[in-house]
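User: Structure please.
Assistant: Input sequence and predicted structure:
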Amino acid sequence: MTNPPSLTNPGDAAHPDDPPGQPGSATTPATTPATTPATTPDAAHSVATGSVATGSVAARRALEALRAGVPNRDAVAALGSLQTGVEDRFTELLDAVVATAGAGEHAEPAGGMLIGGGFGSGKSHVLEHLAHRALDAGFVVSKVVISKETALHDPAKVFRAAIDCAQVPGRPGSAIDEIAAALMTDSAHYADLYRWVHTDDAPVDSRFAAALFLHEYAHGDVELADRLVRFWAGDPLPVADLRRRLKEAGAATTYKLSTVKEGDLAVQRFRFVARLIRAAGYHGWIVLLDEVELIGRYSLLQRAKSYAEVARWVRGDRDDPGAPIGAVLTTVEDFEAQVLVGKNDVELIPKRLRSKGTAEHDLLAGRAEIGMRVIEREQLLLQPPDRDELDRSYAKLKEIHGVAFGWSPPDVEGLERLPSNRMRQYVRAWINEWDLRRLDPTYVPDTTAAPVLVDYSEDTDLEAPEGDADTGAQADETSGQGDETGGQGDETGGQGDETSGTTSGLPGGFPPSF
């Protein structure tokens, strides 16, 4: 790549030490240090405050969310979280993401953390709590639930889900549009982004540099600016169109555009957008991945690729250690026993992959082993509620139920307090019994709890449809007829034969060993 066009005067860029709001500096919306304990912005209007005379709407929202086991802001604000070990580790993660600013190529990536807990132990509740903390501290946050539509082994689908659901602090609109609108081209962070994406060894394709240049060059061309932003968000951008726009801007020879695979492009989008977020004035990007245990139902090859993704998210992207991005993953605490040992993945996956005799399969085997070790050794287990936490939660829920329905709830038995019971079971039992007593004050409920077993049997419905694989996408750099969204399909495309075929286009960013 030749020297990039200079669109800003480096002397006018903000210095990292400049105070916010002063000439030559960027006023960042991220005014809360990452280490500062976060508070809920609308706590004054929530049922979590000392006064519950705030109306029944928020109280009912909180109750229904807790009843369904799908926590929302009201529910999290009401009960909070007493998982101090998780919160302390999350604070360290936020600080590590902030510290990536100015980090050299040999710095350690921020990485992530893996939370383990049984069904109903409060993993999703804790994730929602951490999301609010990160937003309050000035981070963009995405919460992605792993599912059939969003397979962990497919970086393109995970990226699209992450950018579509991303939340920007204090901004209700589309995250990528809010980020693009907030870019400050005279700031130090934008200058860092511009220099980084234009270096010859940048771990992203040159089309990102070209798109950033054109976005600044576009000025009043709303259509062009929108297409570039959509490309950052995952939409295709035909190379022929990009070349034509570069020629119009007098930069046709500056950027060498070549083919790229969709899986690689998705990983690169995470790297680029994380820095774009910082250039917009935020600390970085926090990605929360819930229900990772679903990978236990994938085929063997898809499980292998998913373990490799676990390694990349938790250990960090070694090809881009300076990316201001951190991740929190959740899984069930018995995943190791049921899948790694129960399905013998620890031995079977590396052996099966290395038997193919290709360098790419050997590389995938090594990455999968790292991901499996992370699950074995690095889970941060949620602590079961003690008597004090149960008493506090019971009192708070009783108060909320009274506000929601305008009555004075009586004391109820709920479940017997046993170490085997989950927090969700206690909460649902209390709420259900108050509901019944409100309808019939003389009724005496008798609540029982039954264990919920997680199904780890392989499910062919979770296989990706043919032609949707991340390894076959090629961009047509000459005609613009093909783009990054095409795909030829291989073993990630739902063929279900993990013993034959070849693996190509594995996403980058993993260390070969640790």
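Residues 359-377 form the longest helix (19 residues).
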